[in-house]
Amino acid sequence: MKEIKLYQCEICGRQYKLSADAKACEKYHQRAVEILDMRFTPWNHMQSSPYPHTINVKMEDGKVITFRG
Prior knowledge:
Elements: E1 7-8, E2 15-16, H1 19-28, E3 32-39, E4 54-59, E5 64-68
Antiparallel strand pairs: 1-2, 3-4, 4-5
């Protein structure tokens, strides 16, 4: 039997043979630091949903990203 040791990025879950690669993967990811805005459809609209259709998020690097649902 052979033991295999892997390192895993704690953000995306990808596994690497080298710890340096897993650390580089973790540093690469930008995390959200703040939700700036959420847009909803009115409840009586034909395509209404209780969830936001767009969310603006401020990331660690200061960039604002819009996610659409």
